[in-house]
């Protein structure tokens, strides 16, 4: 009888996937299909949970097959991270007129990403205080126990490294190994190597224009091919989102969700406040937040549902250049750097909140200004090298908690609500990278007001 139920579940799952394919054939907007997939996954997963339970054989066996679609989609996104970083950064250098602009763009983008991460850390700490979560204890079930055991292995990778040693880990020793994501810091290592290639290009182009132009053509061709691969993968988004949300809802422990409800609310409160600060930055630049939100809705909605900053990179850059009026160099730098540096949600708010929650258990006064500044500093420095697809927030939290000599078990205890929080965190990460692009473009006086104010200049979402 169990096999019959599994078969029925899988038949229904495939039928819904076919339904998404029909929506694509009818040219329903990409963002609409993604949200339909999100809602369908929530509904289908909840039905499985209510009928069979989260730990029944029917649910677990069905999810194993369903995960081929969901986990497969995530793996495809992970496949794209390194090629995207390389071609985007090197491509950005081919669009820079001179080394003077390079320095200004790099400074403005990095300063914005890091400054907002420090602010995000402060907001995260304040949220813990407001919701009285400092010293809070969460229940531990079988899933959480397994997660904590897994984290103990990952912690060993960074536990014995001081912050200077962690910074040295960013330097690429074997570029090809880092292209395969062999290390936890491979993302930032590829960023650094790509920057070296870009700087070398500028030097060659200055001395031998013909050789430089030939290299630029190669990079532009590679960029076009990688973007085409990205488009093919993005077409799988509704199917992947549906499978991922089905798994999340079908296997969730609702008792754990209730137990962690205040943490979820506090996290979303902090994320919303930080998002409003982003809007204040736009106001300070005399950029309309309302017009910005209208133009960036497609990429932000994708980031929210797909939970992938890397997957959102093509839409991110296209939105900045074609809809927001940001120059191509600033857009490429901010979008790409934002994958691995200064992610406000995953590397700012999240680890700061966890550090503030567990600090009292270690006998630390979380209200101490010195300790608050310490958390902000450690979070900002540790925000380098956070991967743009799943797991980045966990790695950032391990780095921060390890550097502050705090227990890491808290990371495993909140696993039940990770998918729920991660959606908003990813949206905030992508939003911050676009804000950095606008800041850079505004300061370089290359921001195109006409494109920004033109309502017809939008990113087409029919993928």
TrEMBL record:
Regions that span the bilayer: 6-23, 35-52, 72-93, 105-131, 185-204, 225-245, 257-285, 297-317, 337-358, 370-389, 395-417
Main localization, broad class: membrane
Localization of this protein: Membrane
Membrane topology, record value: Multi-pass membrane protein
SUPFAM superfamilies: Proton glutamate symport protein
GO MF annotation terms: L-cystine transmembrane transporter activity; symporter activity
A GO CC term attached to the entry: plasma membrane
Keywords on record: Amino-acid transport, Membrane, Transmembrane, Transmembrane helix, Transport
Family: Belongs to the dicarboxylate/amino acid:cation symporter (DAACS) (TC 2.A.23) family.
Protein name: L-cystine uptake protein TcyP
Species per Swiss-Prot/TrEMBL record: Carnobacterium viridans
Lineage: Bacteria, Bacillati, Bacillota, Bacilli, Lactobacillales
């Amino acid at each position: 009888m169990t096999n019959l139920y599994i078969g029925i579940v899988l038949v229904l799952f495939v039928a819904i996937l076919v339904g998404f394919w029909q929506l694509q054939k009818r040219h329903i907007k990409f963002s609409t299909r993604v949200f339909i997939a999100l809602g369908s996954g929530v509904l289908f997963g909840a039905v499985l949970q209510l009928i069979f339970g989260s730990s029944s054989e029917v649910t677990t066996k069905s999810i194993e097959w369903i995960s081929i679609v969901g986990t497969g989609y995530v793996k495809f996104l992970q496949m794209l991270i390194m090629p995207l970083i390389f071609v985007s950064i090197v491509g950005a250098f081919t669009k820079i007129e001179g080394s003077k602009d390079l320095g200004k763009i790099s400074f403005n983008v990095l300063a914005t990403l890091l400054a907002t991460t420090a602010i995000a850390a402060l907001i995260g700490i304040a949220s813990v205080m407001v919701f009285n979560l400092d010293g809070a204890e969460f229940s531990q079930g079988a899933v959480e126990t397994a997660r904590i055991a897994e984290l103990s292995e990952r912690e060993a990778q960074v536990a014995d490294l001081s912050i200077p040693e962690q910074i040295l880990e960013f330097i690429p020793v074997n570029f090809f190994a880092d292209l395969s994501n062999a290390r936890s810091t491979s993302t930032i290592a590829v960023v650094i190597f790509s920057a070296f290639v870009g700087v070398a290009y500028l030097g060659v182009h200055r001395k031998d224009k013909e050789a430089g132009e030939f290299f630029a053509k190669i990079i532009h061709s590679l960029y076009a091919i990688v973007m085409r691969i990205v488009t093919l993968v993005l077409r799988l988004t509704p199917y992947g989102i549906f499978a991922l949300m089905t798994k999340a809802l079908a296997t969730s422990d609702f008792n754990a969700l209730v137990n962690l409800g205040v943490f979820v609310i506090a996290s979303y409160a902090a994320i919303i406040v930080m998002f409003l600060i982003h809007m204040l930055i736009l106001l300070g630049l005399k950029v309309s937040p309302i017009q910005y939100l209208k133009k960036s809705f497609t990429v932000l909605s994708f980031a929210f549902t797909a939970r992938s900053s890397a997957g959102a990179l093509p839409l991110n850059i296209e939105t900045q250049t074609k809809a927001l009026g940001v120059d191509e160099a600033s857009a490429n730098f901010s979008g790409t750097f934002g994958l691995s540096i200064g992610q406000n949600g995953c590397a700012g708010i999240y680890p700061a909140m966890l550090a503030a929650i567990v600090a009292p258990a270690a006998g630390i006064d979380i209200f101490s200004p010195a300790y608050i500044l310490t958390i902000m500093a450690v979070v900002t420095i540790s925000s380098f090298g956070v991967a743009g697809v799943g797991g980045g927030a966990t790695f950032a939290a391990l780095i921060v908690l390890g550097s502050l000599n705090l227990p890491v078990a808290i990371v495993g205890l909140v696993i039940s609500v990770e998918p729920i929080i991660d959606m908003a965190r990813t949206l905030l990460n992508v939003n911050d990278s676009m804000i950095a692009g606008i800041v850079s473009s505004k300061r370089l006086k290359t921001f195109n007001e006409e494109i920004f104010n033109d309502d017809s200049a939008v990113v087409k979402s029919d993928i």
